[in-house]
C-alpha cells in the first residue's frame, strides 16, 4: 500500500478495487461438501461439483500439483466474468504495453473486477491511437496465496475444458517466473491441455466418445491457432518493413485483419461455427494478437522436452523448473530443446 500511495491516486484506486474484488470472492464462498450434502442442490450441479473434485484428486495424485484448498468452495458472483483484463499495444507493433505489480512482476495486461472501469481505462488509450482489447476472464489463479474457488461460468464447461483450466491455474502455483507472463501462461497452457487429456484417458479411456470429442475440439483449436500465428507473422513483417511508410503499414494492417474470416473459411475444421464467429467479431487488432502470443509461445520446445522426459509430466514439470532457473526461460527452453528461438514467432 505504501508503494501505491507513492505512485499516485490512480494507482491507489486500482489496488483498492483489486482488494475489494478479491474480498468479495472470499466472503461469498460456499463449501462444496455442504452443497453436495444439501438435498436442495440440483443433481446436475452436484454432478459438476463431483467432477471438479475428481479433477482435483487427479491433479494432486497424478501430477502432484499443489491443490491445497483450491476448488473446494463455490462463489456465485452473479456476473459472467470474474475479471476484465485490459490489453494494449501500439497501432503498428505487436509488443504489448506492460505494467509492474508486486509479487508477479511485469505483466502484459491490467485486470479489473468490474467492467466499467476496465472499459474507461481502455478508452483513454484508444483515444490516443493505441490498439486495445478488453477480455472477460472466467477464472484466474492467485498463485496459491488464496483458496481459489469454483466460479459459476465453470459449471457450463465441458469436462475437458474444466480439467484444462483447473490444471492450468494450479500449474501457476507450481511454477511462476516473476515478470515472465508469456512463459508462465504458455507453460501452464501446455500442462493444462496435456494433463486434461490424461485425465480423460484415466477416467474414460482413449476409445471413449468423451476422449474422441476432446481430441476433435483440440484439433480445431490447433488449426485456429495456426491461422492466428500466420496472421501475427504477416503483420509483424509489415510493421518491421523499413521501406513502408506508417500510412502504408496501416493500410496493409487493415487489409490483413479483414482477411481473417476468409482464412478461417479455408481452414479444415470439425466444428466451424465457433471459429467463424470469433473471426468475424470485429475486435481483432495488435492487442488481441499479442494476447494470443502470451498463451502460445514455445509449444514445440515444451513438446520436445516432454518427449525427452519419456512423456512423464512430473519429470517434465521439474525439468522445466530447472531450465527456467538458468536465465531467460524462453532462451533456455529453446537451447534445451535444440530449437532455434524466434522472439517474434508465437508458435
Polypeptide structure, described:
There is one protein chain. With 347 residues, the chain is mainly α. It has one domain. Helices cover 58% and strands 8% of the residues. The chain has a 3-stranded antiparallel beta sheet with strand order 6-3-7. Strands 1-2 form a two-stranded antiparallel ribbon. Helix 8 packs antiparallel against helix 9 and helix 13 packs across helix 14. The longest helix has 31 residues. The radius of gyration is 21 Å and the shape is globular.
Strands side by side in the biggest sheet = 6-3-7
Mean pLDDT: 90
Main sheet characteristics: 3 strands, antiparallel
- Overall radius of gyration: 21 Å
Q: Helix fraction?
A: 55-70%
Strand-pairing-aware structural class: mainly alpha
Order of helices and strands: HHEHHEEEEEHEHHHHHHHHHH
| CA(first)-CA(last) distance | 39 Å
Given the C-alpha coordinates, what overall shape results? globular
| DSSP summary, beta strand count | 7
Summed up, the helix count is 15
Taken as a percent bin, the fraction of beta residues is: 5-15%
Number of domains: 1
Oligomer: single chain
Poorly predicted runs: 1-7
Secondary structure topology:
Blueprint (H helix, E strand, L loop, with lengths): L1 H5 L2 H19 L1 E3 H6 L5 H19 L11 E3 L7 E7 L9 E3 L3 E3 L2 E3 L2 H13 L3 E7 L21 H16 L6 H24 L4 H31 L6 H13 L1 H6 L7 H7 L6 H10 L3 H10 L4 H12 L4 H9 L10
Antiparallel strand pairs: 1-2, 3-6, 3-7, 4-5
Helix pairs in contact: 4-6, 6-7, 7-8, 8-9, 8-12, 13-14, 13-15
Amino acid at each position: 500500500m505504501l508503494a501505491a500511495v507513492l505512485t499516485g491516486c490512480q494507482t491507489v484506486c486500482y489496488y483498492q478495487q483489486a482488494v475489494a474484488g478479491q474480498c468479495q470472492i472470499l466472503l461469498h464462498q460456499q463449501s462444496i461438501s455442504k452443497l453436495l450434502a444439501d438435498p436442495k442442490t440440483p443433481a446436475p450441479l452436484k454432478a459438476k461439483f463431483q467432477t471438479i473434485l475428481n479433477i482435483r484428486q487427479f491433479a494432486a495424485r497424478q501430477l502432484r500439483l499443489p491443490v491445497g484448498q483450491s476448488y473446494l468452495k463455490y462463489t456465485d458472483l452473479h456476473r459472467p466474468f470474474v475479471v476484465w483484463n485490459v490489453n494494449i499495444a501500439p497501432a503498428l507493433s505487436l509488443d504489448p504495453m506492460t505494467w509492474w505489480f508486486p509479487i508477479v512482476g511485469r505483466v502484459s495486461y491490467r485486470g479489473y473486477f468490474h467492467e466499467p472501469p476496465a472499459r474507461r481505462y481502455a478508452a483513454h488509450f484508444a483515444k490516443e491511437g493505441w490498439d486495445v482489447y478488453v477480455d472477460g476472464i472466467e477464472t484466474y489463479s492467485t498463485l496459491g496465496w488464496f483458496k481459489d474457488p469454483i466460479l459459476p461460468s465453470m459449471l457450463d464447461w465441458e469436462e475437458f475444458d474444466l480439467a484444462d483450466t483447473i490444471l492450468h491455474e494450479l500449474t501457476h502455483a507450481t511454477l511462476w517466473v516473476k515478470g515472465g507472463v508469456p512463459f508462465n501462461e504458455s507453460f501452464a497452457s501446455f500442462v493444462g491441455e496435456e494433463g486434461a487429456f490424461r485425465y480423460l484417458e484415466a477416467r474414460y479411456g482413449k476409445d471413449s466418445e468423451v476422449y474422441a470429442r476432446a481430441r476433435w475440439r483440440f484439433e480445431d483449436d490447433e488449426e485456429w491457432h495456426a491461422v492466428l500465428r500466420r496472421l501475427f507473422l504477416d503483420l509483424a513483417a509489415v510493421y518491421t518493413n523499413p521501406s513502408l511508410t506508417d500510412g502504408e503499414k496501416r493500410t496493409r494492417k487493415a487489409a490483413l485483419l479483414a482477411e481473417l474470416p476468409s482464412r478461417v473459411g479455408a481452414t479444415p475444421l470439425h466444428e466451424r461455427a465457433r471459429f467463424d464467429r470469433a473471426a468475424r467479431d470485429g475486435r481483432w487488432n495488435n492487442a488481441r494478437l499479442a494476447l494470443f502470443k502470451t498463451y502460445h509461445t514455445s509449444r514445440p520446445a515444451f513438446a520436445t522436452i516432454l518427449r525427452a522426459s519419456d512423456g512423464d509430466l512430473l519429470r517434465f514439470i521439474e525439468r522445466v523448473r530447472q531450465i527456467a532457473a538458468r536465465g531467460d526461460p524462453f532462451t533456455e527452453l529453446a537451447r534445451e530443446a535444440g530449437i532455434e528461438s524466434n522472439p517474434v514467432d508465437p508458435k
